[in-house]
Amino acid sequence: MHSGELPSRSHCFPSRSGSTLSRCRRGESAMSEDSVPPHLTVVIPCFNEEARLGASLDALLAFLSERGDPFEIVIVDDGSTDRTADCARTRSDPRLRIIVLPRNRGKGAAVKAGVMAAQGDRILMMDADLSTPLEELEKLSRALDAGADVAIGSRALERSLVTRPQGLFRDRIGRAFNGVVRTLLVPGIRDSQCGFKLFLAPVAKSIFRNVRCRGWAFDVEVLLVAKRMGFVVREIPVHWENDTASHVRVVRDAPATLASLLAMRLRWWARRPKDR
Length: 276
Hints:
There is one protein chain. 36% of the residues lie in helices and 16% in strands. The protein is built from eight helices and nine strands. The strands form two sheets. It has a seven-stranded mixed sheet with strand order 3-2-1-4-7-5-8, with helices on both faces. A two-stranded parallel ribbon has the order 6-9.
C-alpha cells in the first residue's frame, strides 16, 4: 500500500461529533515526531480524473519540489467510477495523501474533506486539469505575504490572460452567474469560480467549518463566509486556459446552482459564522 494512502476500505467518514473528518483507521499518512511539518498543503478534488491526474501530479510534484518548501498534496477522490485513486497510488511519494469518499458527494464536499485534513500552514485548492498554471501560485503567495487571509485567482480582472476562452454561450452564462453572485452574495468579487485559491490554514478551516454547499457553487459560500467573518480576501489576476473536458454542465446544473445560491442568501441573511 502506498505510504500516504488511506486504506481502500477504511474511508474517512464524518464523526458523530459533527466534524468533517474523524480519525481514520490504521494506514492514514501522519507526520512522525521528527518530520518537518508542511508549509503548503495542495488540495485537489477529483471525480473521474484517471485520464489526466497522473500527468498533473507529476508536474505538481516537480514544481513544488523545486520551490524547496515542505509540502503535501491531498487528493480527494469524490466517489470516482474510474481508476482515479489507483492513478494517484502509483506515485510512491510520502508527501502524497489520498482520501477516498465512498460515494460522489460533490466538489464542495470533496474540497472540504481535503481542507479539514490538511496539515500545512497554507492551503491551496486547485483543479486537477491545471487550467491555472502552477507558476501563478507565486502571485497568490505574495498576496498572503502582504497581509491577505485569502487570495483567489481571477479570470475577470485581465481577460487577456485567458489563453483559451470558453465558448460564447458558457462565457455569457458565466458572466450572468457572476453578476448574480456580486449582487446577492459577495459584492466586489469579479470571479468566484476560478478553482485556484490560497488560504492561511487556520482561516481555511474556520471558513469551511461553516460551509454547507456540496456542489460546484461552494466557492461562493466560501467567499461569503470569509467576508462575513471579516477575513481579508484579495482577488488576483491569473493566467487561465479553458478545460473542454469540464464536468460542469451549464444547462443541466443551472437549476440546482440557482437553488444553492438562494439557499445561501437565506441561510446567511442574519446568521453569523461560528469560530472566528
